[in-house]
Amino acid sequence: MVSLDSPITIVRPHHIEFGVGTADRLGKWASERGYSRILVISDAFNATRVDALALKGDITVFSEVTPEPDIANLDKVLAAANAADAQLVVGFGGGSAMDLAKLAAVLAGSGQTLHEVVGPNKVRGPRRAALAQVPTTSGTGSEAGIRALVTDPTTLAKLAVESIHMLADIAVIDPALTFTVPARTTAATGVDAMAHCAEAFTNRKAHPMIDLYAIEGTRLVGKYLARAVKDGSDAEARAGLSLASLYGGFCLGPVNTAGGHALAYPLGTRWHVAHGAANALIFPHVLAFNTPSVPDKTRAIMEALGHQTSANVGSVFEAAYAFCADLGIEMKLSGLGVPESDLDAMADDAFAIRRLLDNNPRDLSRADIRSIYEAAF
Fold first, then answer.
1. Distance between CA atoms of 284 and 218, rounded to whole angstroms?
2. Mind listing the pLDDT tens digit for each residue in 336-372?
3. Could you say which DSSP state residue 361 is in?
């Protein structure tokens, strides 16, 4: 863990609107800045409610965002962006829509290709269009960050682009947009938001300036997630999760995630398991594995979730597993349709994600990863 005097850089959207009923503030913001050619990047469901944003002018809606978007999906987005010649790009949906909006904002008309910008700080700026992010789930925190992920269908690896030029000019977080999210998805995305916080909190790069957001985001999930799963129209609970997701996004920029996300990614790239569901299934296994290296912080995480545990690995695993399972989340790989014959290939894929594994507070060998998958099967 880094010390208090270690340097850290914090970035977040220049303008944040938060609260139930704030979605239409985007239209006013855009009009005040003279943005009349607007591209909204969304999935099929959210494309039906773009009117909630109160945008005015020449509005183009791209409605073909897919879960775990791949290069082909990005290519379609970029074609739409080039055709629209938008002054403002809006990501409207979950993390997939917001990540593709980031890439559209910096790549369309730039002369750069995706493969030229993979990695940190390779995007040439400034970008041509303004960028707005409007999340409709409470999980990814992508509205607050500077990273975007796209799957390479050939290698099944997630290509990560990181750039300050992908930071939103405005993020509008209206919890009312999440009221329609089904209970199962609410549970999984809520644990994903918490995993961002927990992995940042226990990270080798963990910093006191981020710990504040990390532990509070975890506490908000512990307090409100079960309520939102039980009653999707509970405005206070939905707002609590939206704030937890935003805080998780704050954690991702300077610290990022670690082993949990590295082990979750192959479930999505190889077997199309939703990102939140994959992280929820993996979360108790990696948290317990890391406990010997970060016992005090692990205990703080479980207390924030409402569970008293000892520093015993078994105690941590049982409590974290129960937290997820009690929300109705599928906690077995076999239950998600992952075949046991693929565990070795998944372990190879996960072990190659050094940008995350190197953040983990305890070294995860390829054998350790394989054992976790076996235990989760």
1. 14
2. 999 999 999 999 999 999 999 999 999 999 999 999 9
3. S
